[in-house]
Amino acid sequence: MRDSIDERLKLDQNAQVNEIEIQKIKANPYQPRKTFDQARLKDLAESIQLHGILQPIVLRKTIAGYNIVVGERRYRASKIAGLTHIPAIIKELTDEDMMELAVIENLQREDLNAIEEAESYKKLMEDLKLTQQDIATRLSKSRPYIANMLRLLQLPKEVTGMVKDGKLSGAHGRTLLAIKDKQKVKKIAHQASRESWSVRSLEQYVNTCNDGKTKQSTSSQPASKPKFIQQQERQLKEQYGANVMISTKHKKGQITFEFKSEAEFKRLIHQLNEKYKEE
C-alpha cells in the first residue's frame, strides 16, 4: 500500500538542515497557486530580517538545482529580504508526490482562490489519471465537493479571471453556472462585480432570468421589480446603512437586511428596536 502523503513528507527531527543558495532553487513546477499577496510577502520578509527563518523549507534535488516542495512563501520572502542562502531539508520525492504536496499544502493554508483550486483538481486528474473519487479520498473531501469545484472551469475565461482577481467569489461563480448563455454570463458577472452584489442577490437575479420573469438589465435591480419597491429598497439602504432586498411572491413578501459582521448585525438590531420604540 502506498504511504500517505504525510508519511512521505514527514521530517525526521534529526534530519540534516542545509544552507542552500537561493539562486539554485526553483519553484515547484506543479505549484497551483499563481498569485501571491505582495503585502503579506513583504511582512514576512521583514520578519525574516529580524528573526531569520524559523522553519527550514523542503526541497527536492534535481539535475539543474532544487525544486521547492514546501515553503514557497518563505523562499519568495527570503529573496525580498535579500538573503543569499536559505535553510532547507532535502527529500527524495517523485513527480507525483510533488504534485500532490503542492496542492495539499495550499489547500491546508486556504491560500488558493476557487479557480486555482479547481485547476489543481483537474491537473491531478489529468496528470495522475485520478478520478474525482480518488481525489476526494486523498484530500479528505466529498466527491460532490470536488465535482462542484470542477464545474467552475466551465465558466467563460473572462469570468474565471474575475474570480481569480477577487472581483467575484467562488460562490458567485457557481451561481452563474445556472445561466447557459455565455455572453449573458459575462454581462451579469460584470454587473454583479461592478455593483457589489451579494451571492444572495445574484441568486435571486439568476432565478428570475431562468424563470423568464425578467430580461438582462443594466440597473442594479432586476427589471421585473416595480419601481416603488426599488425606491423603498434605496430608502431603507440609506436609512439603515445596509444593503436591503425586498422580494414578493404569491401576494407575500420578504425584506432582507444584509450584514457582514457581528458588530454590523448588532447595529441594525439596535436601529430597528429604536425605530419600533418611536412608533
From TrEMBL:
GO molecular function, one term: DNA binding
Source species, domain of life: Bacteria
Pfam families: HTH_ParB, ParB_N
Compartment list: Cytoplasm, Nucleoid
Gene3D superfamilies given in the database record: 1.10.10.2830, 3.90.1530.30
Domain annotation ParB-like N-terminal: ranges: 18-107
GO biological process, one term: chromosome segregation
A single Gene Ontology CC term: nucleoid
Matches recorded under CDD domains: SPO0J_N
Signal peptide start-end: none
Cited SMART domains: ParB
Protein keywords: Chromosome partition, DNA-binding
Family per record: Belongs to the ParB family.
Name of the protein: ParB/RepB/Spo0J family partition protein
Organism, scientific name: Staphylococcus nepalensis
